[in-house]
Structure prediction request, 273 residues.
Amino acid sequence: MSESSRWQLSGNATEFYQRYSRFLLEPWVPILLKAVRLQSGERVLDVACGTGFVARQAAVSVGAAGIVIGVDINTGMLTMAKAATASSPGLTIDWREADVTALPFPDGSFDVALCQQGLQFFPDRLGALQEMRRILVPGGRIGLSVWGPIEENPYFLAVDVAIRRHVSDSAASGLRRPHTLADPEEARATMTESGFIDANVCSAVEYMCTPPAREFVPGHLAAQPVAGEIAALPESDQAALIEDLCTALTPYADENGLRFPGMAHIVTARALG
Prediction:
């Protein structure tokens, strides 16, 4: 199984993703939208939209005069995105299943392309970016976010250590894939190589707040590609994994749950006019 296919969640994993990953992803959406300076009435494409964290907030920003389309290769994610949008009256978002390297839109269809925490997982990053550039109008903007070094993201580092100890080195190595564009210069060079101009990378630190560790940790792990390997462990080993991870996160616990910092790179650029 390829590393990319390992990250295609199925079944109940998409439900856990919507319920628990939002605590890690939603705080970054306003930062991303501010970076691309979304305007009322603009046409926006959210690539690798997942369950729609970015698309929903983008739809609010562009208003009724704008257009927001979310695309993802994962049918389960799109099903969950549609369900989440249905509970948000007034939001109109078009959800479509599509491969980022073959987007089903004519040239120059959008003013802005967005991708939160997706570029790291594309098997052909350059091809994906070139396709995103194609669907933008001349001078159109792109905004991406990618996680910074795992060492600057204490929650993910704690998960890495615990999975390595209780599951396997290979499982933990797979969970480092979200951090494979942690070098800001590599991110900038990738944008330039794909034909974008004025590429800029801004590193940001944001605090994420979650429910208490004993609720959040099992739910979030159930939304990860390693969930099956964890479920295959004896119950005593599963309990030891959760206990170990909760203990490691104690410094970030308060009366409301967990509060920990994270680092991500916000990447912006323009399509050549």
Observations:
- The two ends are 40 Å apart (CA to CA).
- The chain has a mean pLDDT of 93.
- Residues 236 and 242 are 10 Å apart (CA to CA).
